[in-house]
Amino acid sequence: MLPEIPGHQVHGSKLHGLRTTVSRLLGSKSTGFAGAQPISFSAQHLEELKNENYFVSEKADGIRCLMFTTTDSQGRGETYLIDRHNNYYQLDFGLPMERSRQFHYDTLMDGELVLDIYDDGRKLLWFLLFDCMAVDGKCLVDRPYHKRLGHLREFILKPYRELLRADLNYAQRQPFRMDLKKLQLAYHLQAVFDEIPTLKHKSDGIIFTSKDARYGLGTCDKMLKWKPADENTVDFKVKVIGDYNKPIFVLQLWQGNDTYTDHGILKLSPDEATSWLQDPPDGRIIECRYDPEWATEWRFARFRDDKAHANHINTYEKIMISIRDGVSKDELLNTAPDIRSRYKEREARERR
């Protein structure tokens, strides 16, 4: 179950100004969504995990958002969530500076909205942070990941937690709980897999992130997404053609800008076909699961209205490599001892 993004959506000149501010903050020519996008895990990455230090975490099935926090002309804090469509949602709080009554300005972080659902029906919304791109006007994207995590812990989350404890009114205005996403060194794979069944939200794989990599605006080849081979999915755009009573649903892949290319035809189950006939999803983004036993190989999984585009054709090709390689959970776990020994060797050399 995907959560709803809290706050009220920003429009017009204010939206344009916020997008421009974030773009300048990152030194980017684009005003589009700047979040790093992982690539699919393939067999070649097993060796990379041995040769380079990586963190690993579970891949929560939530809504990916950036968080931008700044101050207004009176110094009052204001915070925005930015979704993949590059929409901005304003929230009624700022983030405090360390040992100060002032709020952070021009600060950008990366995270995910996750909805925990408990056995008794209670629901709890979290914003789990996993990266920090800028703090108080200082761009951090070229710094190593572990350094950016240090900024996130010390300059963002530590004073935030202190203010939550000290100011009941501030705490009551929070639309969610906020914390650092739990990260492990890559050789602790077993611990991550063991934790997934205990989580109160859906998890659909794991994410590896290089400990020393810069933040990659757009596609990031140092952020690796692993799923079981039979759970790998592709996001397509639907194009509806043909007769109204017998529509044909064409799957399209993104080529950049507003350009799409036809990939193939989607075959639906009888129930899906009836539903889609009543409300044809022309132009919508859908997630499809690869099934070689299915007539057209791709089976509809769910709508992804949280995404602005289908997968880029280059991303699709990498996902297909991941599917063909089919790196299993056991293969990952069997690599963990070698990942650990190589890590310890590098650690010992650094101490000399």
From TrEMBL:
CDD domains per record: Adenylation_mRNA_capping (cd07895)
Subcellular localization: Nucleus
Entry GO CC: mRNA capping enzyme complex
Family matches, as InterPro entries: mRNA_cap_enzyme_adenylation, mRNA_cap_enzyme_alpha, mRNA_cap_enzyme_C, mRNA_Capping_Enz/RNA_Phosphat, NA-bd_OB-fold
One BP term from GO: 7-methylguanosine mRNA capping
Assembly information from the UniProt record: Heterodimer. The mRNA-capping enzyme is composed of two separate chains alpha and beta, respectively a mRNA guanylyltransferase and an mRNA 5'-triphosphate monophosphatase.
Name of the molecule in the record: mRNA-capping enzyme subunit alpha
Organism for this UniProt entry: Powellomyces hirtus
Lineage, uppermost ranks: Eukaryota, Fungi, Fungi incertae sedis, Chytridiomycota, Chytridiomycota incertae sedis
